[in-house]
TrEMBL record:
Family affiliation: Belongs to the universal ribosomal protein uL1 family.
NCBIfam families: rplA_bact
PANTHER family: 54S RIBOSOMAL PROTEIN L1, MITOCHONDRIAL, LARGE RIBOSOMAL SUBUNIT PROTEIN UL1M
This protein's name: Large ribosomal subunit protein uL1
Keywords from the UniProt entry: Repressor, Ribonucleoprotein, Ribosomal protein, RNA-binding, rRNA-binding, Translation regulation, tRNA-binding
Source organism (scientific name): Mucilaginibacter humi
Cellular component GO terms, alphabetical: ribosome
Transmembrane annotation, as ranges: none
Cited function: Protein L1 is also a translational repressor protein, it controls the translation of the L11 operon by binding to its mRNA.
Length: 232
């Protein structure tokens, strides 16, 4: 078992054993537990009472964080020439089609989000072997396959995130940075949780929100009392 560092011991001492915190208190406490020299990401982990192996219990959705993610999102738009200026004006970092498809086939994936158009998916589709394992493949359900590429870029740059439950029934996503004020962490977390609540499959029985934890990079997780979250 790995030995805890001095900072990790101090962080653990600030969390009461077996205690669940309100979402507001957890949003404040996570800032106190952060001791990295860089601006840590704040993440939320939600264990759901669903069976992801069943297609009718897969939970996937989109949330627009009111205060953004705090990250610089590198966006590639694969589009036809008539849409290139629209994508550039919206703030896309890379814009093109055949040249970038060739780069990706050569192994280049130095982006965070790829947005494309339905009319070019026949070309983009062959990139699945490269993009799929990196969770970069555009998908209509996540809003990354759309004729409105400019709008999609604006939304992604503004804090739109895509999440889905993994094979163990957990949704893990970033909700901001440790440098954010506690109220902004709280409001971002609340937006994600309320969105997940609206996506509850009708076939899911029993307790939907089994557990919620908030943590920052390298910090211990803080258990959130589900009943303290409004609207779920």
């Amino acid at each position: 078992m790995a030995r805890l560092t001095k900072n990790q011991k101090v962080a653990l001492s600030k969390i009461e054993a077996n205690k669940s915190y309100t979402l507001q208190d957890a949003s404040s406490l996570v800032k106190e537990l952060t001791n990295t020299k860089f601006d840590s990401s704040v993440d939320i982990d939600v264990r759901l009472g669903v069976d992801p192996r069943k297609a009718n219990q897969m939970v996937r959705g989109i949330a627009t964080l009111p205060h953004g993610t705090g990250k610089t999102v590198r966006v590639l738009v694969l589009c036809t020439p008539d849409k290139e200026q629209e994508a550039k004006d919206a703030g896309a970092d890379y814009v093109g089609l055949d040249d970038y498809i060739a780069k990706i086939e050569g192994g280049w994936t130095d982006v965070d989000i790829i947005i494309t158009m339905p009319s070019v998916m026949a070309k983009v589709g062959r990139l699945g072997r490269v993009l799929g394992p990196r969770n970069l493949m555009p998908n209509p359900k996540s809003g990354t396959v759309t004729p409105e590429v400019g709008k999609a870029v604006t939304e992604v740059k503004g804090g739109k995130i895509d999440f889905k439950v993994d094979k163990t029934g957990i949704i893990h996503t970033s909700i901001g940075k440790a440098s954010f004020p506690a109220d902004k962490i709280y409001e971002n977390a609340l937006e994600v949780l309320q969105t997940i609540s609206k996506l509850k499959p009708s076939s899911a029985k029993g307790t939907y929100f089994k557990s919620i934890h908030i943590s920052s990079t390298m910090s211990p997780g803080i258990t959130v009392e589900t009943k303290s979250v409004a609207g779920i």
